[in-house]
Amino acid sequence: MQFSSRRMRASGLLLALALGATACGSDNDDGGASPEAGGESSALINVNGTEPQNQLLPANTNETGGGRIMDVLYEGLIRYDENGDPVNAVAESIETEDSKTYTITLKDDQVFSDGSPVTADSFVDAWNFGANLSNAQLNSYFFEPIAGYEEVHPEPAADAAEDAPPPTPTAETMSGLTVVDDKTFTVELSEPQSDFPIRLGYTAFMPLPEAAFEDPDAFGEAPIGNGPYKMDGAWEHDVQIKTVVNEEYAGDEEPQNGGISFRFYQDPAAAYQDLLADNLDVIDLLPDSAFATFEDDLGERAINQPAGIFQSFSFPLYDPKFEGPNANKVRQAISMAINREQITDTIFQGTRTPAVDFSSPVVQGHENICGETCTYDPEAAKALLAEAGGLPGNAMTIGYNADGGHQGWVDAVCNDIKNNLAIDCTGNSYPDFKSLRDPVTSKTMDSAFRTGWQMDYPALSNFLGPLYGTGAGSNDAVYNNPEFDQLLAQGDAAPSPEEGIEFYQQAEELLVRDLPAIPLWYSNATGGHATTVDNVAFDVFSVPIYTQITKSE
Amino acid sequence: MGRYVLRRLLQMIPVFFGATLLIFLMVYALPGDPIESLFGERAADPAIVAQLRAEYNLDEPLWKQYLLYIQGVLTLDFGTTFSGQPVIDSLARAFPVTIKLALVAFTIQILVGIPVGLIAGLRRGRFFDSFTLAATLVVISIPIFVIGFVLQFVIGVKLGWVKPTVGAEAPLRDLLLPGLVLGSLSVAYVLRLTRTSVAENLRADYVRTATSKGLPRQRVVTVHLLRNSLIPVVTFLGADLGALMGGAIITESIFNVPGVGFTIFRAIRLGEATTVVSFVTVLVMVYLIANLIVDLLYAVLDPRIRYA
After folding, report:
1. Is the pLDDT of residue B308 over 70?
2. Is A437 in Cβ contact with B36 (below 8 Å)?
3. What is the DSSP pairing of strand A240-245 with strand A395-401?
4. Smallest Cα–Cα separation from A547: which of A131, A253, A348, A323?
5. Closest C-alpha to B116, from B200, B186, B188
6. Closest alpha carbon within chain B to A436
7. Among partner residues A166, A240, A438, which is closest to B33 by beta-carbon distance?
8. 3-state class of A104 per DSSP?
């Protein structure tokens, strides 16, 4: 058979393509350092990210994709150091006599990256913008404690129809915010909140330059901030956001590199492969498939440390099965039947820490409050269940979203419950997060469901109030305990955070008795870095401290 | 032929409306409220939910929402995403990348599948034929994500010949490995189709006539035999182009290609009707045009086929 010229051409072309691929594809200095004077401090660091879900406005960023970007572009009144303790950043001082009225004074010479100064107006205008209902900012509830919030952000009546038009604000600004001069403003809260200053490091409270209010939509595509970095080029949707050092930055966190390039990944597995091939410098999350191997693959470059993330599963206390005087003992029995150590070792390979309270190891006030109730003791669990009279129907399900990788632990927890208590427990999988939240928020769940909480700021109250306070936004179990609410209020009104913590811990003891949610574990911050960079550490929010990362050429 | 093309193009219009309506209804049948899920695990603020529903016309009845969307489409305004980005920008960004990836896979299919299938068909029953049959069987039986992960790990990470993921501009050389993975199943099918078709047509009368007329073997094979054998292959290729574009979602996820698959997946999870309907409708149109081109190609390949 003679070689036909067609086949020759075809195979020749293929060979050329293959050679081209091997030859061209071997360089991987994608985010390579710019060769300027300044050596390693001008290197660009490639890190993983996800496409931000909303516009890049501080009051509209409520998820990690946008949060990572806002963290490097902005600096707030305070920031959190590596232990999670609040430290003054843009604020010179935050003073109060009664935990109700705060006087905030700014440092001198603070500027945005476009040169305009950071003044008291920058904060007051930004907070008013964030709270105002007509701007529909998702983080507006952070401004709720401020006096005058209801006029700017009225809520619809409880019995309003679902498609009724939204209520109209009756004011443009909150009465509780007053500008005294360029560097000073006062904040008056509608009720005392002893940990209000601790919240001021959260993204929602960042200042905005005047350019932001001229065209907020355009600004949300290309934000200008006062942080250590500024945007370099446009937001390349679904691809990446590049940032470079902000020369105008007047704060303490001097960047040790030339900029951060956030590459958006659809799937953590792809990011992990890039890290192994040194095509990505830092990764701050891991695919499930890498849990067992990442510490071997990366050695010292692996990171596995506690984080401010609490995981549990909650019970719908409005369902008759879970009412009654002994219902809480049933839940205590269930909690004692779960072998948390085994699950965190086997399924999570040590990337979770068994829970001993309702908060997280990174907050002040974290102690072993759960005690026996969170300790694995099948015999005591059986006895307690018998004493309580058993669970009505002797069956339960744990609802979870199928796209979150939860099936493994839900099945393990259910198996523990089944084997130790003879309660018929199965996992109830919902296709995605949205469809799980629907029955939860409409209070129509008929059995348990997974819940979790990532702290907004490192304070014990943030793990308690929003989740278990009567009528609170994320109180999915509909836990209603006036004694608990009063202890929280006493903690809020306490003269110092330490005294507040004592009240919060007493409130936690009530939670251990009633168990609207059963604490499971704290998620660790997991990740690693490639051989190309150094000085990689994560803060208490599981986010890398980007300014400190160094890269040698 | 011109009237045939015109008729086919006019037929696409009802398909366009039917497809958009169907996808619109399907997105609304998805469980969960898209606005409430913007809040993640926090409770949704009822005032903001009402505000956003009004902004995105979600408080109108379904038929009115559909008409508003179609009205926008006719002025090339495909709506906005929940993050305020116009969907048309999203389309303009994602489709070229996926088209490039699909074309790379398509080219590999043609360049590898047809010649190798031709050789296998000519040497039916001999070692080369059995070998390719076995090799394609292995490729068909391994799921695409296994092929993708293994090749990414071996070639990208361990050997370091290519980068494991596709860079920001999706340059052609980065797309070779994903294209190979995406096209692997189709290469196997094209190869087998060509092989069978060639082997069958070898016994046809016209081949015997051409050989007995004294034409060189090479001319008989390439000009007469191949052209006729390609008819079933071209049918498959036309259907495959549409499938490649839509089905690239797994490959795009493994290699982080910023294309259509991921955008649609994310939009479905968020319940973003504007994005899902726009993207899927464009995919439907691409599919229809690909099939039209395939049908027109029949007339080129087989002179017996003519269109009124």
Report:
1. no
2. yes
3. unpaired
4. A253
5. B188
6. B32
7. A438
8. strand
Antiparallel, parallel or unpaired: β A448-454 and A395-401: parallel
Beta strands in chain B (DSSP E): none
Sequence-ordered list of residues with C-beta below 8 angstroms from that of A432, at least 6 positions apart, any chain: A401, A402, A403, B32, B269
User: Helices A5-24 and B176-201 sit at what angle, rounded to 10 degrees?
Assistant: 170
The 10 Å CB-count burial string (b at 16+, else e) for B113-127 is bbbbbbbbbbbeeee
Structure tokens at B191: 């190869």
Contacts of B210 (CB under 8 A, 6+ apart): B219, B220, B224
Pseudo-torsion of CA B120, B121, B127, B131, nearest 10°?
Answer: 50
Q: What is the DSSP letter of B80?
A: B
Residue B60: count other Cβ atoms within 10 Å of its Cβ.
15
Pairing state between β A78-80 and A302-314: unpaired
Do residues A49 and A239 make contact, with C-beta atoms less than 8 angstroms apart? Answer: no
B123/A14 Cβ within 8 A? no
Q: Above 90 in pLDDT, residue A427?
A: yes
H helix or E strand, kind and range, residue A428: strand A424-430
The CA angle A512-A513-A517, to the nearest 5 degrees, is 55
Strand partners, A454: A309
In Å, how far is B50's CA from the nearest CA of chain A? 5
- Taking the C-alpha atoms of residue A431 and residue A492, their distance in angstroms, rounded to an integer, is 39
Measured between beta carbons, the chain A residues lying within 8 angstroms of B91 are none
A248 contacts A231 by C-beta, under 8 angstroms? no
CB contact under 8 A, B41 and A451: yes
Per DSSP, the residues of B81-102 read -TTS-BHHHHHHHHHHHHHHHH
| Residue A522 near residue A309, CB atoms below 8 Å | yes
Asked if residue B297 lies in contact with residue B290, where contact means CB atoms within 8 angstroms, the answer is no
Task: For residue A2, give the chain B residue with the closest CA.
Answer: B218
Task: Note the pLDDT of residue A341.
Answer: 95
Task: Compute CA A473 distance to the chain's CA centroid, rounded to the nearest angstrom.
Answer: 16
pLDDT score recorded for residue A9: 55
CB contact under 8 A, B38 and A265: no
Instruction: Nearest chain B residue to A165 by CA: give it.
Output: B50
CA distance A5 to chain B (A): 9
| Order of all β-strands in the sheet with A177-181 | A91-96, A101-106, A184-188, A177-181
Please give the angle made by the CA atoms of B271, B276 and B277, to the nearest 5 degrees.
120
Closest CA to B41 of A6, A282, A401, A31: A401
Rounded alpha-carbon distances, angstroms, from residue B159 to A276, B154, B163, B255, B295: 11, 6, 10, 16, 43
- pLDDT tens profile B89-132: 988 988 888 888 999 999 999 999 999 999 999 988 899 999 99
Checking if the pLDDT of A26 tops 50, the result is: no
Which residue from B minimizes the CA distance to A159?
A: B46
Distance CA A180, CA A165 (A): 37
The string of DSSP codes covering B154-183 is IIIIIS-SS-SS--TT--GGGGHHHHHHHH
Q: How many CB pairs under 8 A join A and B?
A: 207
| Set of chain B residues whose Cβ sits within 8 Å of the Cβ of A433 | 32, 37, 269
Spatial separation of the C-alpha atoms in residues A228 and A541, rounded to whole Å: 18
Q: Is the pLDDT of residue A35 over 50?
A: no
- B190: number of Cβ within 10 Å: 27
Contact (CB, 8 A) for B159 and B152: no
Q: How does strand A184-188 pair with strand A424-430?
A: unpaired
For an interface test with B, the pick among A1, A2, A3, A4 (most B C-beta atoms closer than 10 Å) comes out as A4
Handedness of CA B181, B185, B188, B193 (dihedral sign): negative
